[in-house]
Amino acid sequence: MPPSLLLLSTAVLAWMCAGTLARLLPKLCAEANLCLLAWITGHLAGGALLFGLALHTWTSAPIQLKPGLLLGLLTMTLPPALTFALVDRALRADTQRQVAQWQRDGLTGLLTRRALMERAGTLRRSADGSGIAVILLDLDHFKCINDRHLHSGGDRVLVHAARQLQAGLRLTDLVARIGGEEFCILLPGASSAQALELAERLTTEARAQRVRMADGSEQRYTFSAGCAESAAMPDDDAAWAGLLERADRALYAAKRSGRDRVVPWSTELACTQASAGEHSSSLPTPNSAPPHATGSALPSVFA
Protein backbone atom coordinates (compact mmCIF):
# COMPACT_ATOMS: atom_id res chain seq x y z
CA MET A 1 0.00 0.00 0.00
CA PRO A 2 1.53 3.32 -1.04
CA PRO A 3 1.86 6.10 1.51
CA SER A 4 -1.22 8.30 1.58
CA LEU A 5 -2.42 11.35 3.43
CA LEU A 6 -5.92 12.41 4.48
CA LEU A 7 -6.53 16.06 5.35
CA LEU A 8 -9.75 17.23 7.02
CA SER A 9 -9.63 20.88 8.10
CA THR A 10 -6.82 20.78 10.67
CA ALA A 11 -6.97 16.99 11.04
CA VAL A 12 -3.98 15.02 9.84
CA LEU A 13 -3.85 11.33 8.95
CA ALA A 14 -0.26 10.25 8.32
CA TRP A 15 0.62 6.83 6.98
CA MET A 16 3.90 5.14 7.81
CA CYS A 17 5.44 2.36 5.77
CA ALA A 18 8.48 0.35 6.82
CA GLY A 19 9.06 2.67 9.76
CA THR A 20 9.20 5.84 7.67
CA LEU A 21 6.63 8.59 8.22
CA ALA A 22 5.15 9.95 5.04
CA ARG A 23 6.07 13.57 4.61
CA LEU A 24 3.47 16.22 3.99
CA LEU A 25 3.82 17.83 0.60
CA PRO A 26 3.78 21.65 0.56
CA LYS A 27 1.09 21.55 -2.11
CA LEU A 28 -1.18 19.44 0.06
CA CYS A 29 -0.56 21.72 3.03
CA ALA A 30 -1.54 24.75 0.98
CA GLU A 31 -4.64 23.09 -0.43
CA ALA A 32 -5.75 22.03 3.04
CA ASN A 33 -5.04 25.48 4.45
CA LEU A 34 -2.71 24.01 7.05
CA CYS A 35 -0.52 27.08 7.31
CA LEU A 36 -0.30 26.57 11.09
CA LEU A 37 1.33 23.20 10.61
CA ALA A 38 5.05 23.95 10.90
CA TRP A 39 6.48 20.49 10.75
CA ILE A 40 5.78 16.84 11.22
CA THR A 41 8.52 14.43 12.10
CA GLY A 42 8.46 11.01 13.55
CA HIS A 43 10.28 7.78 13.90
CA LEU A 44 9.56 4.34 15.18
CA ALA A 45 11.48 3.46 18.34
CA GLY A 46 10.70 0.59 20.61
CA GLY A 47 7.28 0.14 19.00
CA ALA A 48 6.20 3.72 19.77
CA LEU A 49 5.75 6.46 17.23
CA LEU A 50 7.11 9.81 18.38
CA PHE A 51 5.08 12.52 16.74
CA GLY A 52 5.70 16.27 16.91
CA LEU A 53 3.35 19.11 15.98
CA ALA A 54 3.71 22.87 16.19
CA LEU A 55 -0.01 23.34 16.75
CA HIS A 56 -1.52 24.18 20.12
CA THR A 57 -3.08 20.82 20.91
CA TRP A 58 -3.08 17.40 19.39
CA THR A 59 -4.23 13.92 20.20
CA SER A 60 -3.47 10.76 18.31
CA ALA A 61 -4.31 7.08 18.03
CA PRO A 62 -2.32 4.29 16.37
CA ILE A 63 -3.57 2.56 13.23
CA GLN A 64 -2.82 -1.16 13.46
CA LEU A 65 -3.39 -3.90 10.90
CA LYS A 66 -3.12 -6.40 13.71
CA PRO A 67 -1.61 -6.39 17.21
CA GLY A 68 2.05 -5.49 16.94
CA LEU A 69 1.85 -4.28 13.33
CA LEU A 70 1.63 -0.48 13.31
CA LEU A 71 0.56 1.01 10.00
CA GLY A 72 0.22 4.65 10.89
CA LEU A 73 -1.08 7.33 13.22
CA LEU A 74 -4.29 9.35 13.23
CA THR A 75 -3.66 12.76 14.75
CA MET A 76 -6.20 15.53 15.37
CA THR A 77 -4.91 19.06 15.78
CA LEU A 78 -6.57 22.34 16.60
CA PRO A 79 -5.31 25.89 16.27
CA PRO A 80 -4.98 27.76 19.60
CA ALA A 81 -7.95 30.11 19.15
CA LEU A 82 -10.35 27.27 18.41
CA THR A 83 -8.96 25.19 21.26
CA PHE A 84 -9.47 27.98 23.79
CA ALA A 85 -13.00 28.58 22.49
CA LEU A 86 -13.93 24.92 22.84
CA VAL A 87 -12.46 24.68 26.34
CA ASP A 88 -14.24 27.87 27.41
CA ARG A 89 -17.52 26.58 26.01
CA ALA A 90 -17.13 23.27 27.84
CA LEU A 91 -16.31 25.02 31.12
CA ARG A 92 -19.31 27.34 30.79
CA ALA A 93 -21.62 24.41 30.09
CA ASP A 94 -20.25 22.52 33.10
CA THR A 95 -20.71 25.57 35.33
CA GLN A 96 -24.28 26.01 34.14
CA ARG A 97 -25.03 22.37 34.91
CA GLN A 98 -23.60 22.69 38.41
CA VAL A 99 -25.57 25.88 39.09
CA ALA A 100 -28.75 24.24 37.84
CA GLN A 101 -28.19 21.27 40.14
CA TRP A 102 -28.31 23.36 43.30
CA GLN A 103 -30.81 25.94 42.06
CA ARG A 104 -33.46 23.54 40.80
CA ASP A 105 -34.96 20.51 42.46
CA GLY A 106 -34.11 17.50 40.32
CA LEU A 107 -37.61 16.01 40.52
CA THR A 108 -40.03 18.92 40.35
CA GLY A 109 -37.93 21.61 38.69
CA LEU A 110 -38.86 24.06 41.44
CA LEU A 111 -36.29 26.16 43.25
CA THR A 112 -34.35 24.40 45.97
CA ARG A 113 -34.35 25.68 49.54
CA ARG A 114 -30.89 27.14 49.07
CA ALA A 115 -31.83 28.90 45.84
CA LEU A 116 -34.92 30.33 47.55
CA MET A 117 -32.73 31.76 50.29
CA GLU A 118 -30.50 33.35 47.66
CA ARG A 119 -33.51 34.92 45.96
CA ALA A 120 -34.77 36.16 49.31
CA GLY A 121 -31.50 38.02 49.79
CA THR A 122 -31.89 39.58 46.34
CA LEU A 123 -35.41 40.69 47.20
CA ARG A 124 -34.14 42.35 50.35
CA ARG A 125 -31.42 44.26 48.50
CA SER A 126 -33.87 45.49 45.87
CA ALA A 127 -36.72 46.20 48.29
CA ASP A 128 -38.88 49.21 47.43
CA GLY A 129 -40.44 49.56 50.86
CA SER A 130 -43.16 46.98 50.33
CA GLY A 131 -43.49 43.87 52.43
CA ILE A 132 -43.65 40.18 51.66
CA ALA A 133 -45.90 37.23 52.45
CA VAL A 134 -45.01 33.56 52.84
CA ILE A 135 -47.13 30.47 52.26
CA LEU A 136 -45.96 27.06 53.47
CA LEU A 137 -47.80 24.06 52.06
CA ASP A 138 -47.52 20.40 52.95
CA LEU A 139 -49.09 17.47 51.08
CA ASP A 140 -51.49 15.65 53.39
CA HIS A 141 -51.01 11.95 54.15
CA PHE A 142 -48.15 11.73 51.69
CA LYS A 143 -46.74 8.64 53.41
CA CYS A 144 -49.96 6.81 52.58
CA ILE A 145 -49.49 7.71 48.91
CA ASN A 146 -45.95 6.36 49.00
CA ASP A 147 -47.09 3.20 50.78
CA ARG A 148 -49.81 2.57 48.22
CA HIS A 149 -48.00 3.51 45.02
CA LEU A 150 -44.36 3.24 46.13
CA HIS A 151 -41.95 6.15 45.81
CA SER A 152 -42.37 6.32 42.04
CA GLY A 153 -46.06 7.02 42.59
CA GLY A 154 -45.24 9.60 45.24
CA ASP A 155 -42.91 11.27 42.77
CA ARG A 156 -45.75 11.54 40.25
CA VAL A 157 -47.86 13.34 42.83
CA LEU A 158 -45.01 15.69 43.76
CA VAL A 159 -44.39 16.63 40.13
CA HIS A 160 -48.10 17.20 39.51
CA ALA A 161 -48.50 19.27 42.67
CA ALA A 162 -45.45 21.37 41.79
CA ARG A 163 -46.90 22.18 38.36
CA GLN A 164 -50.22 23.10 39.92
CA LEU A 165 -48.54 25.53 42.31
CA GLN A 166 -46.45 27.13 39.57
CA ALA A 167 -49.49 27.64 37.35
CA GLY A 168 -51.27 29.62 40.04
CA LEU A 169 -48.57 32.21 40.76
CA ARG A 170 -47.60 35.61 39.46
CA LEU A 171 -44.36 36.08 37.56
CA THR A 172 -42.86 37.84 40.59
CA ASP A 173 -43.71 35.04 43.01
CA LEU A 174 -41.20 32.35 43.97
CA VAL A 175 -41.97 28.73 44.80
CA ALA A 176 -39.56 26.11 46.10
CA ARG A 177 -39.61 22.55 47.29
CA ILE A 178 -38.01 22.86 50.72
CA GLY A 179 -38.55 19.35 52.04
CA GLY A 180 -39.87 15.96 51.02
CA GLU A 181 -43.48 17.05 50.47
CA GLU A 182 -43.25 20.64 51.71
CA PHE A 183 -43.32 23.73 49.54
CA CYS A 184 -42.67 27.41 50.22
CA ILE A 185 -44.03 30.35 48.25
CA LEU A 186 -42.70 33.90 48.56
CA LEU A 187 -45.08 36.68 47.54
CA PRO A 188 -43.24 40.01 47.25
CA GLY A 189 -45.51 42.98 47.92
CA ALA A 190 -48.46 40.82 49.01
CA SER A 191 -50.57 41.48 52.10
CA SER A 192 -51.76 38.85 54.54
CA ALA A 193 -55.22 39.00 52.95
CA GLN A 194 -53.77 38.41 49.48
CA ALA A 195 -51.64 35.53 50.74
CA LEU A 196 -54.66 33.96 52.42
CA GLU A 197 -56.72 34.32 49.24
CA LEU A 198 -54.03 32.67 47.14
CA ALA A 199 -53.50 29.86 49.64
CA GLU A 200 -57.25 29.17 49.71
CA ARG A 201 -57.35 29.07 45.92
CA LEU A 202 -54.37 26.71 45.69
CA THR A 203 -55.81 24.29 48.25
CA THR A 204 -59.21 24.38 46.52
CA GLU A 205 -57.59 23.63 43.16
CA ALA A 206 -55.66 20.75 44.72
CA ARG A 207 -58.88 19.01 45.76
CA ALA A 208 -59.92 18.82 42.10
CA GLN A 209 -56.63 17.35 40.88
CA ARG A 210 -56.31 13.74 39.72
CA VAL A 211 -52.91 12.16 39.17
CA ARG A 212 -52.73 9.22 36.78
CA MET A 213 -50.66 6.47 38.35
CA ALA A 214 -48.67 3.67 36.72
CA ASP A 215 -51.41 1.10 37.44
CA GLY A 216 -54.03 3.26 35.71
CA SER A 217 -55.67 4.47 38.91
CA GLU A 218 -56.16 8.11 39.83
CA GLN A 219 -54.66 9.55 42.99
CA ARG A 220 -56.04 12.63 44.71
CA TYR A 221 -54.10 14.92 47.00
CA THR A 222 -54.73 17.87 49.30
CA PHE A 223 -52.64 20.57 50.90
CA SER A 224 -52.45 21.95 54.39
CA ALA A 225 -51.15 25.51 54.35
CA GLY A 226 -50.01 28.23 56.70
CA CYS A 227 -49.35 31.83 55.73
CA ALA A 228 -47.80 34.89 57.31
CA GLU A 229 -46.70 38.31 56.16
CA SER A 230 -44.25 41.04 57.02
CA ALA A 231 -45.23 44.67 56.44
CA ALA A 232 -41.60 45.42 55.59
CA MET A 233 -39.10 43.27 53.75
CA PRO A 234 -37.03 41.36 56.37
CA ASP A 235 -33.65 43.09 56.59
CA ASP A 236 -31.63 40.42 58.39
CA ASP A 237 -31.55 36.70 59.10
CA ALA A 238 -33.41 37.03 62.39
CA ALA A 239 -36.32 38.87 60.77
CA TRP A 240 -36.48 36.37 57.93
CA ALA A 241 -36.36 33.41 60.34
CA GLY A 242 -39.19 34.99 62.33
CA LEU A 243 -41.38 35.27 59.24
CA LEU A 244 -40.78 31.64 58.32
CA GLU A 245 -41.44 30.60 61.91
CA ARG A 246 -44.84 32.31 61.89
CA ALA A 247 -45.83 30.62 58.63
CA ASP A 248 -44.64 27.28 59.98
CA ARG A 249 -46.68 27.69 63.15
CA ALA A 250 -49.74 28.40 61.03
CA LEU A 251 -49.06 25.29 58.93
CA TYR A 252 -48.75 23.24 62.10
CA ALA A 253 -52.14 24.55 63.23
CA ALA A 254 -53.68 23.57 59.88
CA LYS A 255 -52.36 20.04 60.30
CA ARG A 256 -53.58 19.82 63.89
CA SER A 257 -57.07 21.04 63.03
CA GLY A 258 -57.80 18.40 60.40
CA ARG A 259 -55.61 19.08 57.33
CA ASP A 260 -56.82 20.19 53.88
CA ARG A 261 -57.18 23.79 55.02
CA VAL A 262 -55.40 27.13 55.34
CA VAL A 263 -54.56 28.81 58.62
CA PRO A 264 -53.15 32.36 58.72
CA TRP A 265 -50.74 33.29 61.46
CA SER A 266 -52.09 35.57 64.18
CA THR A 267 -51.08 36.64 67.64
CA GLU A 268 -54.07 34.69 68.98
CA LEU A 269 -52.72 31.55 67.33
CA ALA A 270 -49.30 32.14 68.85
CA CYS A 271 -50.81 32.59 72.31
CA THR A 272 -52.91 29.43 71.95
CA GLN A 273 -49.91 27.35 70.90
CA ALA A 274 -47.74 28.80 73.64
CA SER A 275 -50.30 28.10 76.37
CA ALA A 276 -50.75 24.54 75.11
CA GLY A 277 -47.00 24.01 74.84
CA GLU A 278 -47.41 23.02 71.19
CA HIS A 279 -45.17 23.19 68.18
CA SER A 280 -41.45 23.09 68.14
CA SER A 281 -40.64 24.26 64.66
CA SER A 282 -38.65 21.92 62.44
CA LEU A 283 -38.21 24.64 59.85
CA PRO A 284 -34.54 25.67 59.87
CA THR A 285 -33.47 29.27 59.89
CA PRO A 286 -31.71 30.57 56.78
CA ASN A 287 -28.30 29.84 58.29
CA SER A 288 -29.04 26.30 59.39
CA ALA A 289 -29.07 23.10 57.41
CA PRO A 290 -32.40 21.25 57.00
CA PRO A 291 -32.83 18.14 59.15
CA HIS A 292 -32.29 15.80 56.19
CA ALA A 293 -29.25 17.63 54.85
CA THR A 294 -25.63 16.75 55.27
CA GLY A 295 -22.56 18.90 55.05
CA SER A 296 -22.16 22.54 55.95
CA ALA A 297 -24.99 24.88 56.86
CA LEU A 298 -26.65 27.08 54.32
CA PRO A 299 -25.11 30.47 53.62
CA SER A 300 -26.60 33.60 55.08
CA VAL A 301 -29.58 34.93 53.14
CA PHE A 302 -28.56 38.53 53.58
CA ALA A 303 -24.78 38.23 53.39
From TrEMBL:
It comes from the Bacteria. This is diguanylate cyclase. Its EC number is 2.7.7.65. GO terms for molecular function: diguanylate cyclase activity. It catalyses: 2 GTP = 3',3'-c-di-GMP + 2 diphosphate. Keywords: Membrane, Transmembrane, Transmembrane helix. Residues 276-286 have a biased composition (Polar residues). Residues 130-267 form the GGDEF domain.
